[in-house]
Amino acid sequence: MPSLRLSHCRLRPVRVLDVDLAGARFADVTLARARITDATLQNISVTDANARGSRWTDVDFAGARIEDANLRGAPLTNVDLRGVRILDANIEGLTIDGVRIDRLLARAKRR
What we know:
Elements: E1 5-10, E2 15-20, E3 25-30, E4 35-40, E5 45-50, E6 55-60, E7 65-70, E8 75-77, E9 85-87, E10 95-96, E11 99-100, H1 101-110
Parallel strand pairs: 1-3, 2-4, 3-5, 4-6, 5-7, 6-8, 7-9, 8-10
Antiparallel strand pairs: 10-11
């Protein structure tokens, strides 16, 4: 079965609940202020996306590749980020389980 491909879409504000989009491909997609809950997004590919202020809860991102994305101010809660690659993204104000990404990165540098 072919994976889902979305391009040139504006989905805002949108609520997504209990979906399996593993292997999906997203390009030029706006999810600003979206609410994504209980989703499987393993091995997805995201290019040129605006997810500013979106909320991600109980999401499996394992193996995802996110490139040229705006994740500014996006809270991630109870997410699986194993093997995730984030390239050329705005992550200012992004939080993971309530901790700001800049603090997490500073801790990692000290180790």
